[in-house]
Amino acid sequence: MADIDHFAIACDTLEEGRDWVETRLGVPLQCGGQHDHFGTHNMLLGLEDGLYLEVIAIDPNAAPRSYPRWFNLDAFSGAPRPTTWIARTTDLGSALKTAPKDAGRPVALSRGDLRWHMAVPDTGLLPYDGLFPALIEWDGPNHPAPRLTQQGVRFVSMEITHPNAKAFDIELSKLITDPRVKITSGTPEMRLTFETPKGKVTL
Description:
Order of helices and strands: EHEEEEHEEEEHEEE
Number of strands: 12
Strand order of the largest sheet: 2-3-4-1-5-8-7-6
Low-confidence stretches: none
Structural class: mainly beta
Largest sheet: 8 strands, mixed
């Protein structure tokens, strides 16, 4: 089984994404860093309960890649928005046997002293139009969340809409059961709700 690890907000530029999130949640993001393998960079927000929020964009200073980037960022355009959630497991190989067949293959990644393996599809696009969780296994005890300043933001719920909601829900239940996650029928979309110093906010 797996648990929610973090959420990703995609954006065309990191500056645009930071402004979008900070304006809505009313708290500042912290510096993240670069992901050399995929040519991306991020900023982070610590959430309660050991979770965190990641704002991620293609790094304009990175060289072009000959393979698709994770989170389907090569195809991203428009306003910043939640696009991906990441679920943590202690056995990525076993989790992938349970996940949909196009959930990806393990890729070894690092940033600073952080080491992890993440399942990344060869196309960059996760199942169910990118809304199925990306699976991650952290290598060793290091994790971003304890290093981030708590600013009174708590994850409340996530609503995912998809035209194939019933099949999505069945596939997801094999890996993760969390009452905060709701799958309903509709156009592919993800909405995240947080309790913040400003009150409840939905992204």
